[in-house]
């Protein structure tokens, strides 16, 4: 039955594909499979999230955030969001993926180096939100990767209501950590940057 999908061998197979394939469609499909297997709060998803970590799959996914393919970046971002529902994964993803996630966000001057589609930008923003939820350390990592500038730019000037909303949720989460406010204010940010009217 479907339990066969949740064996360590299946995780190893997908990670092997993600490591060795150069085909964007194949990479998107393998990341999408891990994304689906790690979604939700049931026993098998929890098992898959831990197995991906134990099989050293997180660095493989983080590296794929550098892909030139919009769809690969999107699938990998959503997979990382699902995987970060595991606390240990969340800590690792926050430490090692935050810089790559922020690099995929558009800046004031341009959409992003790769000109990612709206769905992909929203996926990256939602992943960042999941990673910083209940983690001051990951929120601090976001600040250190210069993510606030990009988030404020998206929330103020994006033409996409979905991007604006997703960026605003991340900003509100950051401001909710009172212990980070002094550092933010030293960098020139104030409450108005984080409380966005939608």
UniProtKB/TrEMBL annotation:
It holds the Pfam family Arm. One of its GO terms (cellular component) is nucleus. It is found in: Cell junction. InterPro entries: ARM-like, ARM-type_fold, Armadillo, Plakophilin/d_Catenin. GO terms for biological process: cell-cell adhesion. It comes from the Eukaryota. ARM repeats lie at residues 56-93. Its main location: other. Keywords: Cell adhesion, Cell junction, Repeat. The keyword Transmembrane helix does not apply. PANTHER family: PLAKOPHILLIN-RELATED, SPLICING REGULATOR ARVCF. Belongs to the beta-catenin family. This is ARVC protein.
């Amino acid at each position: 039955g479907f339990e066969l999908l949740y064996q360590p061998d299946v995780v190893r197979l997908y990670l092997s594909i993600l490591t060795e394939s150069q085909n964007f469609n194949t990479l998107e499909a393998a990341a999408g499979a891990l994304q689906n297997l790690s979604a939700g709060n049931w026993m098998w998803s929890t098992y898959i999230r831990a197995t991906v970590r134990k099989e050293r799959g997180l660095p493989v996914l983080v590296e794929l955030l550098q892909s030139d393919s919009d769809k690969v970046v999107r699938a990998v971002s959503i997979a990382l969001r699902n995987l970060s529902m595991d606390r240990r994964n969340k800590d690792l993803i926050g430490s090692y993926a935050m810089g790559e996630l922020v690099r995929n966000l558009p800046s004031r001057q341009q959409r992003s180096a790769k000109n990612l589609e709206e769905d992909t930008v929203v996926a990256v923003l939602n992943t960042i939100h999941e990673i910083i939820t209940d983690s001051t350390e990951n929120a601090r990592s976001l600040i250190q990767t210069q993510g606030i500038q990009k988030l404020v730019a998206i929330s103020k000037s994006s033409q996409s209501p979905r991007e604006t909303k997703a960026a605003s949720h991340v900003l509100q989460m950051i401001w909710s950590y009172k212990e980070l406010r002094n550092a933010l204010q030293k960098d020139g940010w104030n409450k108005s940057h984080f409380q966005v009217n939608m």
